[in-house]
Design a protein that fits this description.
Layout lengths: L2 H29 L6 H13 L3 H13 L7 H31 L5 H9 L8 H11 L1 H10 L2 H22 L13 H10 L6 H26 L15 H16 L7 H7 L3 H22 L6 H23 L5 H4 L1
Helix pairs in contact: 1-2, 1-3, 1-11, 1-12, 1-13, 1-14, 2-10, 3-9, 3-11, 4-6, 8-9, 9-11, 10-11, 13-14
Length: 336
């Protein structure tokens, strides 16, 4: 991978990680929409809509890195992936189950632990590790497809796979578990492997991104009024397989790949990109701890107009610093 492409991938990982933190920071205001003024809610809704690409783009970036050529040495590939995913999955699953027992007074049992792991719900963000592991299992086969199939055919195949997943969301709600969670994301994974070499033109993807964000925000506002945040359709347009988020995600990925970063960004990219997985895994704990401090000492900062920017900046900064020093510990690298 040449230096310019590496900077693009690394900066995309950093920005996608920040987008995840912002998405989770604004989510509280979305669920409190009935008690929030319309201007504040609209800003939170727009920010949340504008970051809905984060997980699909993470998946596409994984595809871009792993599907560039056929996998040689499948055994070595799997051994490396075990270290990258399995150890963090074990550690953070245990950590967040403990967090729920310690701070949310849930009652632990072996049945409860087994059920949460099987349903990929130890915490709301940990499903990512389970679905990535599922994709890794089939990466050698996917790499052959991307290498030898015509790129246009692979793109069409990927769009069909994403469309099928979108139909499952509409028809059944697509309840996923440890075995199946990766299946809907295969299309995104393949697209990353193809579009990293053949990105769509910026003159198309920038307007596509802006339009899809606006439609997502507008339709979410309408659907929330009709169904509420807990209704089946209330937050449909936030789903990673809603039409607008699919378009948004593809556009953002192509935008990241197409941007020409100056080599001056190389030190920043090299420093922060390796921290992104750790920040993704740790940040919910940091975000919740910060909110507890607001509740105890500065209740005014729980108002969305203060809470969103302050919690986002503090969560991003504190999580990054903690992961940076955690990775200085010998075993810290194994879990981040």
């Amino acid at each position: 991978m040449n230096n310019s492409r590496k900077i693009n991938i690394d900066m995309a990982r950093i920005l996608a990680c920040l987008a995840v933190v912002l998405l989770h920071t604004t989510a509280r205001t979305i669920y409190l929409y009935e008690t929030t003024d319309i201007v504040t809610f609209s800003i939170a809704n727009l920010l949340n809509s504008a970051t809905r690409w984060c997980v699909p783009v993470f998946i596409m970036l994984s595809g871009a890195l792993l599907l560039s050529k056929p996998i040689e040495g499948v055994g070595d590939f799997f051994i490396k992936r075990v270290r990258v995913i399995v150890f963090p999955a074990i550690f953070w699953t245990a950590a967040y189950l403990w967090w729920r027992v310690r701070y949310y007074n849930e009652s632990p049992s072996l049945l409860w632990i087994g059920k949460e792991i099987f349903n990929t719900t130890p915490y709301y963000h940990l499903y990512f590790l389970y679905l990535i592991f599922g994709l890794y299992v089939f990466t050698p086969a996917f790499a052959v497809i991307v290498a030898y199939l015509n790129p246009r055919v692979t793109i069409k195949l990927s769009i069909v796979a994403i469309s099928f997943a979108a139909l499952l969301v509409v028809s059944s709600g697509m309840t996923l578990n440890l075995v199946t969670h990766f299946l809907p994301y295969i299309g995104y994974f393949l697209l990353g492997g193809v579009l990293v070499k053949n990105p769509w033109r910026l003159c198309y993807v920038l307007p596509g991104f802006l339009i899809s964000v606006l439609i997502t925000a507008l339709m979410t506002f309408v659907m929330l009024k009709a169904y509420g945040p807990m209704g089946k359709w209330g937050l449909y347009f936030y789903n990673y397989f809603s039409p607008t988020v699919v378009i948004m995600s593809i556009c953002v990925f192509c935008l990241f790949i197409g941007i020409r970063w100056s080599l001056k960004w190389q030190p920043v990219a090299s420093l922060l990109a390796p921290l992104t997985l750790g920040v993704y895994l740790l940040h919910p704990m940091v975000l919740e701890w910060i909110r507890w401090q607001w509740t105890a000492y500065f209740p005014v900062f729980l108002q969305p107009r203060f809470e969103i920017p302050l919690s986002f900046m503090l969560t991003s900064f504190v999580s990054t610093v903690l992961v940076f020093f955690l990775r200085k510990i010998p075993m810290g690298r194994w879990i981040t």
